[in-house]
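Example 3.2
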Amino acid sequence: MAAADTHKLPAGGALAVDRDDFARHVTGALATHPHVAIERGEVAGLPPLAWDSVIIATGPLTSPALSAAIQDLTGEGELAFFDAIAPIVHLDSIDPGITWRQSRYDKAGPGGTGADYINCPMSKAEYETFLSALIAAEKTSFHAWEATTPYFEGCLPIEVMAERGRETLRFGPMKPVGLSNPHRGGERPYAVVQLRQDNALGTLWNMVGFQTKLKHGEQVRIFRLIPGLGRGGVRPPWRAPSQHVLECAQAD
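Structure, written as C-alpha cells:
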C-alpha cells in the first residue's frame, strides 16, 4: 500500500497506479528486505511438510510438476479462468472538443481532483451503432484447450457483455450516471465510455471496463466509432489475453 500511495494516479474514488513504477518499487523493496530471500528457478513441487506457513502464488506458466502437486493437494482439476485486458489510448488522439474530464459524481479519491476520467459521450443512435458493430465484430479464436475455460465474471470482455443484452453495457461500464456533458449544457449522455490515466506522464489512457478479445484490426475499427476517439490512437492490450488475473480496473 505504501508503494501504491507513492505511485498512485488520478482515478476518482478508485486507487490506480503507474504499473511500471509500482512494480519496480515493490521488486526493489523485496530484493533489499533483510528477511526476504529471492531464489530464481523452477519450483518442481510443494515445499516440505515441515514448513507450516506457506503461500503458493503461481500463474499461467506453472510447471507441470507443480501443477500436478497443486491438483493433488486441492482435488481440483483446473483453477483457471480468462481475464481479458483493456486497450490503451494515446492522449493526443483524444478529441477534447467532444470529451470532457470528470470523475463520476465528481469524486476526488486518492490522488485525484474530481476530474480524473476522460469521458466520451454517446447519444442513443451512436450507442446502437456501436453496439451492433461490437456484436458483429470478429473475435480472437480460442484454442481447443481454452474452449471450456470460463471467464472471470468481474472482468468480462466487452463483446461478451454486449451479447447478454442491448442494455447490459449501459448499466455496466458505459453507465452515464454521475456525469454531465459541459459541451451539451450539462446534460447526461445516453451512454459514456470512460478513460483512466494509465501512466505517470498522462500520455496513455486505459479504456475502463473495455476488456476485449476482439482482433486488433477490429478493435481499431470499432473503437474509432466512439465519439472523441475517431482520430485513432487505440493500442492493443499490453499483453495478449491470458489465463490468470492481471488486473481489473473498475470505474468508481
